[in-house]
UniProtKB/TrEMBL annotation, chain A:
Keyword Secreted: no
Species in which this protein is naturally found: Lottiidibacillus patelloidae
Key words, A-Z: Cell membrane, Electron transport, Heme, Iron, Membrane, Metal-binding, Transmembrane, Transmembrane helix, Transport
A molecular-function term among this protein's GO annotations: heme binding
UniProt name for this protein: Cytochrome ubiquinol oxidase subunit I
Primary location recorded for the protein, binned into one broad class: membrane
TrEMBL record, chain B:
UniProt keywords, alphabetically: Cell membrane, Membrane, Transmembrane, Transmembrane helix
Membrane topology category: Multi-pass membrane protein
Protein name: Cytochrome D ubiquinol oxidase subunit II
Transmembrane segments annotated in the record for this chain: 6-36, 57-76, 82-103, 115-136, 156-181, 201-219, 231-252, 264-283, 303-327
High-level lineage: Bacteria, Bacillati, Bacillota, Bacilli, Bacillales
């Protein structure tokens, strides 16, 4: 393997690892805040216990989110100095403002956890609000840099020199709001579905209508409702993200859809594999005209195909599969929440077993959606690090010996993943729900 | 004076704040481990009570350092990225293990002691590796080949200055943290813990001073340019030594039937570091990495600097009440500092 490829693998692995904890770091505070507010309004103590137990989980996960994020931030400079050189001159603001978001979250997280007994109910909600705000702001700000990589603005490159810098024009680059919106709503959706998953799993292992069962059913419903709302928002906003690709990064959309011929009335290919030799999608389902409509809201919209670009600038073609998987997950989970709502509030029946198992799968699936979405977004930008400005190989470090480091970090991530699962397992085993004062209100 | 001096002064200030906060953070973690098994002192409890709310904030400072460095001096990223790849990765690995295991040890009460061994030992190694950035930027350990600059790792590891710096980093971490914990135990009216930490400070203080002299000695033959510049600031160094004597001496003053004035000691030692790092920082200029990168050659775009400068001021002003609230809750609220459990 050459050094650039190892750098890419190392950074991709770091991000793929960080994002698991980071997404929950954004999603869980919203759930905790909601539970805390419901508790303050209804006085149902179960919700206070939910907030408490989720906070404990969140605090343990932050113990990995923070150092893995620190790794991500430092590795960005160590592995991609060419990229960071331009970032430092053009899009430094989000990085720097993110520091304040981190401070906000860290300060109020400590206050909420370690001073809980000395806070008034109002101060608890305010602290939680700042934790949630800090978490989502860090996600939005780091996504801002990612958005700028796809739609770089706020500077000109003259003979390799950065000139005419306008930091705020770079900050408000065209795809910022759409991309940040997508990351935010998909993180909320994931946090909610992960909660729903755990609750559904616990219900399956519990006798019906015990206090514990009812406790988990409340958590499940909360997860499904919030997850459902945000899966609609994710789909709507994802559609808009795709339209932005159509406008700003046409070859990425073409690769995502496996489209080679530039055409109006373009068909939408679902599933299958993109074949480089025959330049078509094999074994997929084609829906006529649909792609044109999705890209431009009209059937005669011209969608650019890969043939219009030199092959060396094509993104890897397997992103078609990643994109399909993400969209597929999005729609499945959306339907799942609708079914759950219908069953409980319209048919007014207990959930059957198959549906419960479907709920259990919701959390892992949405996490997969996050992973697929990110790998699609970053790998689909290849061979560029900054779209049509800087090639990935020009951004990479010249240092050698990255191979050894790569394996050390993989070992670290495996260690932390296993240890985190064990610690969570033992913690909740020693602090079972039965020991809490649940079920005071049914 | 140009903007780059303003930028490097801010960077220096962040480095200074981080080095004090990190010394306390990593040192406290070490002491918490060191006394974990001794049931008769409450030293571990005091250390944990201080550490649990504060480590996250200290960690943000390390991110702040990296961000400030690359946003103020993006021209330095190629050189720094290449030469710091290995030491930086080692620090990251240690840091990840340390933070995660510290959090685990709070959650898993059954295995608390074993887990805190992992976090205590990895934690105390971090300052040693972190400070190795300094000998690297002082020059002499970087070669240039076809693909760019490379760190001469073997040469670094066999150099005297690497070990002098590492020893200094670790010793001063232990010194400063034991002083601070002595002060914190005094505030908690815990005489037992106070005596323990006072004793640790009395041992580690002279060691850290000795290490500082060793560092100066190694400069004589490994980075002579720096030593020459440093001698120009020798009155600052002298002042620094004076403050060491004040701080160390105040551990022996008797007042109100109690021995030692830990608050005075902490303040004096922070000033000792302030003066010494002022001298060091000034002597290092204009080089970021000697002799390849200077603050002029690495400086960011002026428009960017202006925007960054303004957002720093606005950001810290907005956050200030948060910091004050935090301080009151954990550092001065007797209900927290003194709680029994
Ligand atoms: C639970 C996760 C999840 C789900 C269900 C979806 N997405 Fe997504 N998607 C993401 C999570 C995600 C993400 C991980 O958050 C990404 C990666 C980069 C980004 O901006 O968001 C992303 C990126 C992303 C992009 C690429 C943006 C770019 O490269 O700049 C597009 C076009 C879409 N999504 C479109 C959709 C559509 C049409 C969906 C239909 C339901 C959808 N996403 C569901
Ligand atoms: C969109 C994907 C990402 C999301 C949702 C996300 C979110 C988060 C969250 C919630 C935290 C915990 C914050 C705290 O408590 O301090 C965190 C930590 C961190 N993240 Fe990420 N992050 C993402 C990607 C990245 C990337 C690409 C980088 C690096 C360039 C990065 C750098 C960091 C750093 C440095 C920290 C540690 C901050 C600290 O020390 O407190 N993140 N991230
Ligand atoms: C948080 C989830 C993310 C994941 C899972 C992820 C994944 C990846 C992967 C797999 C690569 C390697 C791409 C390849 O070479 O094929 C990569 C590269 C990269 N990503 Fe991301 N990424 C994430 C977020 C971000 C964010 C928020 C930024 C912006 C700060 C970012 C910036 C980069 C850069 C600069 C590279 C290296 C250069 C390049 O390959 O283009 N990534 N990422």
């Amino acid at each position: 393997m050459d050094e650039v490829l190892i750098s890419r693998s190392l950074f991709g692995t770091t991000m793929g690892f960080h994002i698991i904890f980071a997404t929950l770091g954004v999603g869980l505070p919203l759930m905790i805040l909601t539970a805390e507010i419901i508790y303050q309004r209804t006085n149902d103590h179960d919700y206070a216990i939910m907030a408490k137990r989720w906070t404990k989980t969140f605090a343990i996960l932050l113990g990995v989110a923070i150092p893995s994020g620190t790794i991500a931030g430092v590795q960005l400079s160590l592995l991609w100095p060419g990229f960071m050189e331009i970032v430092g001159k053009v899009i430094a603001l989000p990085f720097q403002i993110e520091i304040f978001a981190f401070f906000l979250e860290a300060l109020f997280m400590s206050i909420y956890v370690y001073a809980a007994d000395r806070l008034s109910p109002w101060m608890r909600i305010i602290s939680l609000f700042f934790v949630a705000l800090g978490a989502v702001a860090s996600a939005i700000l780091i996504t801002n840099i990612h958005a700028w990589e796809g739609t770089p603005t706020g500077f000109r490159l003259v003979n390799g020199e950065v000139v005419d810098v306008d930091p705020w024009a770079a900050f408000f680059n065209p795809s910022f709001f759409v991309t940040a919106g997508h990351v935010t709503v998909s993180a909320y959706m994931t946090g909610a579905f992960v909660v729903a998953s755990v609750a559904a799993y616990k219900m399956l292992k519990e006798k019906k209508d015990t206090k514990v069962y009812i406790f988990h059913r409340k958590a499940l419903m909360l997860g499904l409702i919030i997850g459902g709302i945000f899966s609609v928002l994710t789909a709507v906003n994802g559609h808009e993200s795709a339209q932005y690709l159509h406008e700003y990064q046409p070859e990425k959309l073409a690769a995502a859809e496996g489209l080679f011929e530039t055409q109006s009335y373009a068909p939408l290919a679902i599933g299958g594999f993109t074949d480089r030799e025959s330049r078509e999608v094999k074994y997929g389902i084609e829906i006529p005209w649909a792609l044109s409509f999705l890209a431009g809201d009209r059937f005669d919209e011209v969608v650019v195909g890969l043939n219009d670009f030199p092959e060396e600038y094509w993104p890897p073609l397997f992103v078609h599969t990643l994109f399909n998987a993400m969209v597929g997950i999005g729609f499945s989970l959306l339907f799942l929440s609708i079914i759950g709502f219908y069953w409980r509030h319209i048919r007014k029946k207990q959930f059957p077993k198959w549906l419960m198992w479907a709920f259990v799968s919701a959390g892992p699936l949405s996490m997969l959606g996050i992973e697929f979405g990110w790998i699609f977004a970053c790998t689909g930008r290849q061979p560029w690090t900054i779209y049509r400005i800087q090639l990935t190989k020009d951004a990479a470090t010249g240092a050698d010996a990255i191979g050894v480091i790569f394996f050390l970090f993989i070992g670290l991530y495996i260690l932390l993943a296993i240890a985190t699962v064990l610690v969570l397992h033992f913690y909740f085993k020693r602090h079972p729900l039965e020991k809490e004062k649940i079920g005071t209100i049914q | 004076m140009g903007d780059e001096y303003l930028a490097v002064a801010m960077l220096w200030l962040f480095v200074f704040i981080y080095s004090v906060a990190a010394s306390i953070d990593f040192g406290t973690g070490f002491w918490s481990m060191f006394y974990a098994k001794r049931r008769h002192t409450k030293a571990t409890k005091i250390a944990n009570r201080f550490l649990s709310p504060s480590w996250k904030i200290t960690n943000v400072f390390i991110v702040l350092l990296v961000v400030a460095l690359i946003t103020f001096f993006p021209g330095a990223t190629f050189t720094l990225g290449a030469v710091l790849l290995i030491p930086g990765s080692i620090v990251l690995l240690l840091l990840a293990i340390r933070s995660a295991f510290m959090v685990y040890s709070y959650a898993a009460s059954k295995h608390r002691v074993q887990l805190s061994y992992v976090s205590g030992i990895t934690g105390i190694l971090i300052p040693g590796f972190l400070i190795s950035v300094l000998p690297i930027t002082q020059g002499g350990f970087i070669a240039v080949n076809a693909s760019g600059e490379q760190l001469l790792l073997g040469k670094l590891l066999s150099s005297f200055s690497f070990y002098a710096f590492a020893g200094f980093g670790i010793a001063s971490t232990l010194f400063l943290s034991s002083l601070l914990l002595a002060d914190y135990s005094r505030a908690a009216d815990d005489d037992d813990a106070y005596n323990t930490y006072r004793f640790d400070a009395i041992i580690t203080g002279p060691i850290s001073l000795l290490m500082a002299f060793l560092v100066l000695l190694t400069m004589d033959f490994e980075a002579n340019w720096l030593l020459e510049n440093l001698l120009f600031y020798r009155s600052w160094l002298l002042l620094s030594v004076c403050f060491f004597l004040i701080g160390y001496g105040s551990l022996f003053i008797k007042r109100n039937a109690k021995i030692g004035m830990p608050r005075l000691a902490v303040i004096a030692i922070v000033f000792q570091y302030l003066f010494a790092s002022y001298a060091y920082g000034n002597a290092h200029l204009p080089y970021i990495v000697y002799p390849n990168v200077t603050i002029e050659s690495g400086f960011t775009h002026p428009a960017m600097f202006k925007a960054l400068f303004i957002t720093y001021i606005v950001g810290f002003s907005i956050l200030l009440p948060g910091f004050i609230y935090f301080w009151r809750l954990f550092m001065t609220d007797k209900r927290y500092v003194k709680q029994e459990d």
